Amino acid sequence: MIDFNKWHSIPPYSLGKDEKFEMLSAALTELTVHHMEHCVPYKNILDASRFSAESTKSYLDIPYLPARLFKELTLRSVQPKDVFKTMTSSGTSGQSASRIHLDKSTVANQTKALTRIVTDFIGNNRMPMIIIDSSNVVGDRSLFSARGAGILGFSIFAKDRMFGLDEEMRLDFGGISSFLEKHQNQQVLLFGFTFMVWQHLYKELARIESALDLSRAVLIHGGGWKKMADEKVESSVFRKKLNEVSGLERVHDYYGMVEQTGSIYMECERGHLHTSIYSDVIIRRGFDFKPVEFGEIGIIELVSILPLSYPGHALLTEDEGIILGEDDCLCGRLGKYFRVMGRIKNAEPRGCSDTYNSKTVNTG
User: Fold this and answer.
1) Helical packing angle, 17-38 and 40-48, nearest 10°
2) Any bridge partners for residue 221, and if so which?
3) Do the Cβ atoms of 157 and 189 come closer than 8 Å?
4) Is 183 exposed, middle or buried, given 0-12, 13-18 or 19+ CB atoms closer than 10 A?
5) CA torsion, points 293, 351, 307, 271, in degrees to nearest 10?
6) Which residues contact 237 (CB under 8 A, 6 or more apart)?
7) Which run of H or of E encompasses 343?
8) Dihedral pair phi/psi, residue 330, rounded to 5°
9) Backbone dihedral angles phi then psi of residue 90, each to the nearest 5 degrees
C-alpha cells in the first residue's frame, strides 16, 4: 500500500512536474486497485468501464467518479466497525448529503497533509485563533458537517481559540476585542467560510464603523463564492473591504471538498490556488471529457492520494476552472496553479457557506 511516511517527509510544494506525475500515477493506480478489492459498488463501476490497472499509463486514465455519487451510494472500502468518523457534505434544503466514511488511518493522513500544506503558508507556530462562526456548528464528533469539520481541522493551528459569533450568529465584538487584547502583539489566525466572513464580520464592522485592529491577523477562508458572486463581490473587493474596516492584509482563500478532506488547494501570495504533492487538478472538456490544454476552461477533476477508506481519489466536481501554469508561479511553489471560475450552470450549490442559512446554525 502507499507509504504515507515517505509522502509526509517530502516538502508539500517541492516536486517538479515529471517526478510528481510519476509518483502520483503509481500511487493513484495502486489506490484504485485497493478500492476495487474492498468496495463492491466501486468495482462494479470500474468493471462496467472496462478498467485495467495493467493498461493504465497514468492517473489521467483512472476513471473518475462524479462527486455527487456519494449522495446516491454507500461507497466504503473498510468494514463498518472500522469507520471512525462520518463526514457529511453541504447540501441545500431538501437535498441529500454526501456521506464520507473515514477510518483512523485516513483521518491521520488527512490531518498530517493539511498541517504540512497550511504551515507552508502561515508558519509552524500555533496562533490564537478567532473562528467566524458559532460554537453550535461543532456538534457530534463522530458525525461532522463539512463546516464543523473545517473548523475542527483548522483548529490544529490554534494555541487558544474563540468563536466570533454567538448562537444567533451575531458578531461578538466585545469578545473579539478582549481576545485580541489578551493576545496583543501576537499574530492571530482568523478562519471562516467566505460568505460568513463577509456577512457577519465585514458587514457588521462596516455597520458599526468599528476600529477593530486585525492588521496582525492572517485570514484563511474558503467556499461560498456562489453567494459572493450573487452580491457581485469579487476576491479583490473582498480583500479591499476587509482591509478598510480592520486593517487586515494577509488573506488566503482555499479550495477543497469534503470528499477529499486534507488535500486542500491554498491560495498563494500571488492569488493562485496551488496543488500540493498529495493532489492534482485536471481540467476536462464538457463535451468529451478529454483533458484540456493549459489556459482552457473546463470541468475540474481533483485527484488525491489521501482517501484510503473510501474511493474518493479521483472525483469530477461541478465547478469550472482553468490551469494557469505549472512549476513557474512567482511565489516559488512547484506544482500546477489554477483558478476556479464558478459552478457549472444549473449545478446545485454545495459550498459550506453557499448553503448556509442564517436562521439555521447547524447546517453544513
Assistant:
1) 110
2) 192, 253
3) yes
4) middle
5) 50
6) none
7) strand 336-343
8) -70, -10
9) -70, 150
**pTM of this structure:** 0.91
How many other C-beta atoms lie within 10 A of the C-beta of residue 185? 5
> In the numeric block, which cell numbers belong to residue 142?
463522530
Amino acid, res. 282: I
Q: Which long-range contacts (CB under 8 A, 24 or more apart) does 79-87 make?
A: 82/309, 83/309, 84/142, 85/141, 85/142, 85/143, 85/144, 86/142, 86/143, 86/144, 87/144, 87/145, 87/146, 87/149, 87/258, 87/261
Domains belonging to the chain, first-starting first, are: 1-364 (3.40.50.12780)
Instruction: Please check whether residue 263 is in contact with residue 153, taking contact to mean a CB–CB distance below 8 angstroms.
Output: no
Question: What DSSP letter does each residue of 258-276 carry, written as one string?
Answer: GGGTT--EEB-TTS-EE--
CA distance 363 to 132: 15
Separation in Å, CA 189 to CA 130, 163, 219, 335: 6, 12, 6, 26
The pLDDT tens digits of the residues spanning 327-342 come to: 999 999 999 999 999 8
**pLDDT score recorded for residue 231:** 86
Terminal-residue alpha carbon distance, the chain: 33
Q: Which three cell numbers stand for residue 364?
A: 453544513
Tell which residue, 100, 22, 95, 65, has the closest CA to residue 310. Answer: 100
The low-confidence residues of the chain, meaning pLDDT below 70, are 90-95, 139-144, 346-364
**Strand ranges inside 72-179, DSSP E:** 85-88, 99-102, 127-131, 143-145, 158-163
Predicted pLDDT at 141? 53
Using DSSP's 3-state secondary structure scheme, residue 46 falls into helix
Q: What is the pLDDT of residue 362?
A: 34
